[in-house]
């Protein structure tokens, strides 16, 4: 069985609504997992990241150092960027 995943890089003007759309429609799109890469953990974007995760998207970060920084803000990191790529 093949797993179909989508990775969106960035949560800016285009990335945030795209991630939300993909997460909400993943069943209709035959997508198993929606991942999003965020480079910088920002206090003023905690609610945005939480909202995307609540919709079923999974947060991906650069490395373990950044994973710790995101975890401090209360985010669940689902993986590292290089490990997510095929």
| Poorly predicted ranges | none
Secondary-structure class: alpha/beta
Q: Main beta sheet, described? A: 4 strands, parallel
* Helical content band: 25-40%
CATH architecture: 3-Layer(aba) Sandwich
Q: What's the structural domain tally? A: 1
Count of runs of 4 or more consecutive helical residues: 4
What is the β-strand count? Answer: 4
User: How would you state the average pLDDT, rounded?
Assistant: 95
Q: What portion of the residues fall into strands of 2 or more residues?
A: 15-25%
Shape: globular
Rg calc: 12 Å
Account of the 3D structure:
The protein has 86 residues and is an alpha/beta fold. The chain has one domain (5-84): 3-Layer(aba) Sandwich (Rossmann fold). The chain has four helices and four strands, in the order E-H-E-H-E-H-E-H. It has helices spanning 15-24, 46-54, 64-72, 81-84, and strands at 5-9, 33-37, 58-61, 77-80. The protein has a four-stranded parallel sheet. Strand 3 (58-61), helix 3 (64-72) and strand 4 form a beta-alpha-beta unit. The chain is globular and about 35 Å long. The model has no long low-confidence stretch (mean pLDDT 95).
SSE layout:
Elements: E1 5-9, H1 15-24, E2 33-37, H2 46-54, E3 58-61, H3 64-72, E4 77-80, H4 81-84
Parallel strand pairs: 1-2, 2-3, 3-4
Structural features:
21% strand; 4-stranded parallel sheet; alpha/beta; 37% helix; Rossmann fold; 86 residues
Give a concise summary:
This protein has helices at 15-24, 46-54, 64-72, 81-84; strands at residues 5-9, 33-37, 58-61, 77-80. It has 86 residues and is an alpha/beta fold.
């Amino acid at each position: 069985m093949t797993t179909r995943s989508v990775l969106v890089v960035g949560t800016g003007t285009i990335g945030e609504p795209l991630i939300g759309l993909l997460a909400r429609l993943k069943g209709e799109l035959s997508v198993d997992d929606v991942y999003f890469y965020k480079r910088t953990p920002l206090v003023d974007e905690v609610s945005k990241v939480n909202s995307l995760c609540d919709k079923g998207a999974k947060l991906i970060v650069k490395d373990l150092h950044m994973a710790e920084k995101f975890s401090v803000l209360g985010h669940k990191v689902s993986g590292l960027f290089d490990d997510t790529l095929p």
